Amino acid sequence: MQQTRNLSLSFLYRHIIVPYRLGLTFFLIVGLCSCGNLTSPDLSKTGLKIGTNVTPIGEIKPKQDNQAIVYIQGQVEKQAPLMKQWAYEINDSTGKIWVVTNQKNLGQGAQVVIKGKVRYRSIPLAGKELGEVYLEEE
User: Residue 99: which residues within 8 A CB-CB, separation 6 or more?
Assistant: First the structure.
């Protein structure tokens, strides 16, 4: 009698716990996926950006604090090798900006999301300010 009772309890335990664990696993995976920024090449063609912390390049100001960290999303237009780094010109629908990075495998036309510190290099020339704002990748 005791053995039959234990057998029926283990049968019920397995059939109740399995859906419970599957449900918890599903919600855990969905929760973790919703924490990150999702980008899709198909969505970038439509101009749709996913992620609330992506800053339009046109909103990055030349006199912005050098400690500001921003995320930008756009397409690589130009590249220039530096001594130990690379510089890439990134374009979105609002403007263009140069990004200095250690990455050397970004091809022209690639869609990228980059996190970087806003930097400004002052270049006074003949009484005019010809400085340039750029990002230094974090």
Answer: 72, 87, 88, 89, 90, 114, 116, 134, 135, 136, 137
